[in-house]
Amino acid sequence: MRSLPSPSPDPQFKLKAGTSAPKLGFPGAVAPSRACLADIACYPRARPLGRCSEVLGCARDEVALDPKMDTARALLICGTVLLAISALLGFVQYRYRERPELFAHWRVVHAGGTAGAVQLLALSAVWERFAGSVSWASFLASGVMLATWAFFLGPLARALGRPRWARAINSAGAVVALPAYLALPLVLLW
Under DSSP, is residue 90 helix (H, G, I), strand (E, B) or coil? Predict the structure, then answer.
């Protein structure tokens, strides 16, 4: 578990200190303190754990983020990094415009990396709704991320003149991608 930094309070937060607990849906409980309310306003999606004895818990105590939110964040970060790298490799593609074979290799790197990044960014945007209550959804997202990176690094190795590495990376990506992409539609059924 990690503790969270202290951002500014959520402007949508309307709960005031001293609010009676029955209005919050916790009969017989004590209302949270002002410090606890301030923390809850900053982290409305965090789930309090452990030491806080008040009704809603304090973010100053140990806080665990929702695993679906962490997975969506990982998808977002991987997609953004991959998009930045593959977009910049478009300049390398342009450099080889007079040599058709190298131009084609770099085009696969640039276009494939960009398409994979867009896929990860799109999944990150809908992951909380898409994954639902499936316990193995984070493993599925990891498989999709690994396969996407492998299908970027394989063509990159080929464009850099490393065909053996390219074959090994693409084969490993295929081994991960096959179950991941077959399981992706199953998440909708659960």
Answer: helix
